[in-house]
Amino acid sequence: MDITAERITTAEGVGGYLAYPSGQKSPAVLVHFEIFGVNGHIEDVCRRIAGAGYAALAPDYYHRLETKTAPYSDLKGAFKLAGNLKDEEMMADAGSCLGYLRSKDFVNADAIATLGFCMGGRVSILTAATHPQSISAAVSFYGGGLAGENRMGGHTLNPMEEAAKVQAPILLVYAEKDQFIKPEHVEAFTGKLKALGKNFQSKVYSGAGHGFFCNDRPSHHEEASKDAWQRTLDFLEANLKKAKATAG
Question: What's the domain count of the chain?
């Protein structure tokens, strides 16, 4: 499959990395980065998603800052970058990127998912809650803060309170040995979704730690990463491709 990949800027000035299958109309996925920014790994994730038949756009929520990425070795610097983010601005940026995708003739505007990692896992769920009419599926990999824990100064939205607004099916991916997201956090958020009657799936990978999907980090767990990726592709297939084909 021929893939087109490029850096883009929306009409509202939000930067991002876009990858999509050339010469066809495809469902789309909004990809939310970890605290390290739109780096090589996130670009690779976008290309992998494009290779599976979707347009993938990773918004650069650090576009207002001079420094837009931090190396994995500089966790303090990454948290400093993330500390500049405000929920209201990120949700506006996500909306801008959704509008960008819907405007493209190579995107099926009625089939857009949101997917994020770590901090981006939280942003993914908030995007589905803030833009429910635009999101057909939501995926969160070890989303930090879903139970309202470890809130930063700019976190004015609590996913526990916003979850009621989500209309799309949800896939939650967690790690058994996550040092940031404790079992009680997982139980709190999944319990909330269950109480709300939401359509969701949750998978906790035994032996895996936080950030296990990223093959550029020491915490990478090959077996869990492979299974989680296939699980994600199956979820997107069912809720974007197959669902829209049936509706059509």
Answer: 1
